[in-house]
Amino acid sequence: MTDGNPAAPVRRDPRFAARFDAMSAFVSSSAGPGEILFASLRGERADYLRLNGARVRQAGSVERAVVSLRVVDAQRQARSVRTLGEDAAIGAVLAEAHAELRAVLARLPADPYACWQPMPSFSERVRGGPAADPAAIIDTIAAAADGDDLVGLYAGGPVVRGLASSLGHRHYHETVSSSFDFSLHLEGGRALKDTWAAEQWDAQSLHAAIAAARERADVLRRPSRRLAPGDYRVLLSPQAVADLVALLGWGGFSERAHRSAQSPLSRAQRGLEAFDAGLSVAEDADALGVPRFQDDGFERPARVPLIDAGRPAQRLVSPRSAREFDATCNGADDDERPLAACVAPGRLPAADALRALDTGIAISNVWYLNYSDRDACRATGMTRFATLWVENGHPVAPIEPMRFDDSLYRTLGSQLLGLTDVARRFPETATWDGREPGGACAPSALVGALRFTL
Amino acid sequence: MSLRVVEARSETLAVVRGVLRPPLSSVDRGAMVTVWLDGELGYCASADLSARGLQDAADRAVAWALAARGRGLGLASAPWRAPELGARYRGPDDEPLPAREALIDLLRDEAVAMALDPRIVHSSAVLGATEVVQGLWIDGELVADQRFRFVEPNLEVTACDGGRSQTRTLGGQYNGFSQQGGRAVLGVSGLIGGGARIAGQALELLYAPNCPAGARDLLLSPDQMMLQIHESIGHPLELDRILGDERNFAGTSFVTPDMFGSYRYGSPLLDVSFDPGVPGEVASYAVDDDGAVAHPVRLIEKGVLKRALGGELSQLRARALGWPIGGVAAARASGWHRPPIDRMANLNLAPGDATMQSMVAAVERGIWMQTNASWSIDDARDKFQFGCEWGRLIEDGELTTVVRNPNYRGRSATFWRSLAMVGDPATMQVLGTPFCGKGEPGQIARVGHASPACLFRAIDVFGGES
């Protein structure tokens, strides 16, 4: 499938396409008798513009393409990851990796959990338009900041994933996206955070996003309140809900974590606990533009239900877990984490959410989540950015950062009063190993009581 | 113009639930070109190291600097410095790691030792080894040639019975025993022979009572001290955070520029150093990635805050704002594809004179905690909550009951003032992790933390769900 603007057919980035073709040609021509080769391509050409105080702090570009080459021979397997340099040297780089892997393989035992998809498959998905030039990005953001203390990271350019095998698999996924993850800061450390994202550079909509954030930041100018620890009624923003569900994704939906007693959802899996019946979560690859293939050649389904009406549904099963635990692979990556966790909207009209909160805390962002008791799915974290005290449905004042520590079975279960009827999409903004496809999707959540401790 | 070329070669071996996972190797080579032009910096990173590839990268870096002209840092000079004599670094010259097959056998031995009971439902024995060769050229001249060998071991075991599970590790979930060197690290880290010990403790924790709640004296082992130092001293002292660079992501700091030189960070027993010269500690190096020569520097002296963790660029920016804050050679990048930012390197707490026995004896009602399991701290690095894998109560000067799910919380701004006793060198361990994250775009760097065991008074301690 090839997607894109119908008026201007989108073509593959020529440099990444050439690398993919070279990689594909290598695996096709290099497998020895009995050998199977899988090669995965990760690539990005990224413009990164980092701002502090609406001024350029760091500005630059990164071009990086790595191939993960896997060799399987008589159930023995090993993998090597190589960064691709000069285009002319790609064949030599992969040949060197191949030779080294063969030498390693010769002294390895058979891997009982080696698994791959023997049936070849094909796909191509290319989306997005051209990236902006450096001057245009800086011009737009500097103008939109309009003297405000703007901090953030613009990231743009193509992101590529590919898979080729000696069995004939050929998958190519390319998106050209732009995002600006930013925050507006006021006196006293108060700030509001938002993320703008588009499939192609759009100065006007970026400008509008920053202006809208400025309007929402007005309430932060009021004197802040310090709350005592205790239980408070809260309205979690869509971003906060997405972050809590992302924490659940740290082992909660993994077949491997479940089978090795490391899942935070073990009590729910045994039927001892449940979330609210209004909570449903699915891994929705298509909704967030996640490639529909994974490194072992298995197709990723369009949608995998993870929590259905408050109870655990399917788990994410990688090919290796499928072998080890005699389960059915559903195209998960080896880490069995969701790439596109989407929380289904509820029935509470989004426009009425503050009125439904009445008096309590509207939490825009949560921060540094971790389990304080994994068995009990109890999590701690902090409020951050524009977290507001609300009275009679109206924001009254920002509150100072508070620590919460509570079971997610309470927060998203017995204390969950409702989810709003609109779910917001969030692109993945992590850039640890480069930009990633995917993200999350979530509505706001009204919670009767969240336990604050510090 | 500066040019940093980095080549990292690594291999990871892992035996998980008794089965060797496919060995994973990698070769990552590339270059970062940074230009300073008309007061602004621009960078471009590329793995194409041909003359044309580097020229293209330089052209792109120039384009960024020009685009930022008048709207960036407005630096009067480039932030990098060429060391007068050039710099050369080589890590510990100890015996290399054994061959792959021997390492696999070693990991298998630990895996067998961990699987000592049917209630052990998960185990992993992992060893990562990475060699990094890094060169820094400033205006065409090679000014730094540094070579590192990192060894990153870990063990993890999970015991489960009756619906309860407990996990015990060698050095936490973030490879806390990472060091530079070779074969010697295997012994120093406790990897060899560690499997049976942690498996036995995981089984013991399964039936241990929940950690009680309330104010208690808290004795922390070095493998929790490293996390406490990292989160509530290291990050707050990063000058780029204080300057606001991280406000959109990793956060800011409760430390303000006016505190340097006078702020009482902790009790008079607290001495903390930036020390990139400890042989074998994971973040030892000769120069940082802007060419600044690295020296040991005391950041907190007798409890008083003296200097920041800020590289040359951050110091320049602070001075321009009227803050003459002393810094250190802390500008480091996580790889060729990221620009330098302020980093902790080795951040070490100096030993005192208290024996382990004397610290236990000095506690009427307390708890001893080992090995971090949970970590969370606010964006200003003040309000924290940390959990450990293992705890043991101290009552009337005696070690008593082992407890599960021990947690504690507090505020950085006051916690260190409750430091009551500092362990002697016999309680000291040199630790480190490859997983310190910050920066936009994101960077994950190696940091080292050496610490003795330490005793804190009247800390808010609690357990898990009953």
Structure description:
The complex is a heterodimer of chains A (454) and B (466). Helix content of chain A is 22%, strand content 37%. With 454 residues, chain A is an alpha+beta fold. In chain A, strands 1, 2, 3, 4, 5, 6 and 7 form a seven-stranded mixed β-sheet that branches. In chain A, strand 6 (170-185) and strand 7 form a beta hairpin. In chain A, helix 3 (134-145) runs parallel beside helix 4. Chain A is globular. Chain B is an alpha+beta fold and 466 residues long. Chain B is built from nine helices and 24 strands. Chain B has helices at residues 51-67, 100-114, 183-188, 194-206, 222-234, 239-242, 312-320, 356-361, 412-415; strands at residues 2-16, 19-20, 24-37, 40-46, 87-90, 120-138, 141-161, 164-169, 179-180, 214-220, 272-274, 297-301, 304-305, 331-332, 341-342, 347-349, 365-377, 383-395, 398-403, 407-411, 419-422, 429-438, 443-451, 454-462. In chain B, strands 1, 2, 3, 4, 5, 6, 7, 8 and 9 form a nine-stranded mixed β-sheet that branches. Chain B has a five-stranded mixed beta barrel with strand order 10-17-18-20-24. In chain B, helix 2 packs parallel to helix 4. Chain B starts with a strand and ends with a strand. The interface between A and B is large, with 91 and 82 residues.
Describe what is shown at a glance:
The complex is a heterodimer of chains A (454) and B (466). By secondary structure, chain A is an alpha+beta fold.
Throw out a few tags for this protein.
heterodimer; A: alpha+beta; PmbA/TldD fold; 2 domains; 7-stranded mixed sheet; 10 helices; disordered N terminus; B: 466 residues; alpha+beta; 5-stranded mixed β-barrel; 24 strands; 19% helix; globular
Write the layout of secondary structure elements.
The complex is a heterodimer of chains A (454) and B (466).
Chain A: H1 14-30, E1 35-52, E2 55-73, E3 76-83, H2 90-105, E4 122-128, H3 134-145, E5 149-165, E6 170-185, E7 191-198, H4 203-216, E8 230-236, H5 238-248, H6 255-259, H7 266-269, E9 281-284, E10 303-308, E11 311-312, H8 319-325, E12 340-343, H9 353-357, E13 360-363, E14 365-373, E15 378-384, E16 388-391, E17 394-398, E18 403-407, H10 408-414, E19 416-419, E20 424-427, E21 439-442, E22 445-452
Parallel strand pairs in A: 4-6, 8-13, 12-21
Antiparallel strand pairs in A: 1-2, 1-5, 2-3, 5-6, 6-7, 8-22, 9-10, 9-12, 10-11, 13-16, 14-15, 15-18, 16-17, 19-22, 20-21
Chain B: E1 2-16, E2 19-20, E3 24-37, E4 40-46, H1 51-67, E5 87-90, H2 100-114, E6 120-138, E7 141-161, E8 164-169, E9 179-180, H3 183-188, H4 194-206, E10 214-220, H5 222-234, H6 239-242, E11 272-274, E12 297-301, E13 304-305, H7 312-320, E14 331-332, E15 341-342, E16 347-349, H8 356-361, E17 365-377, E18 383-395, E19 398-403, E20 407-411, H9 412-415, E21 419-422, E22 429-438, E23 443-451, E24 454-462
Parallel strand pairs in B: 5-7, 10-17
Antiparallel strand pairs in B: 1-2, 1-3, 1-6, 3-4, 6-7, 7-8, 7-9, 10-24, 11-12, 11-16, 12-13, 14-15, 17-18, 18-19, 18-20, 20-24, 21-24, 22-23
Helix pairs in contact in B: 2-4
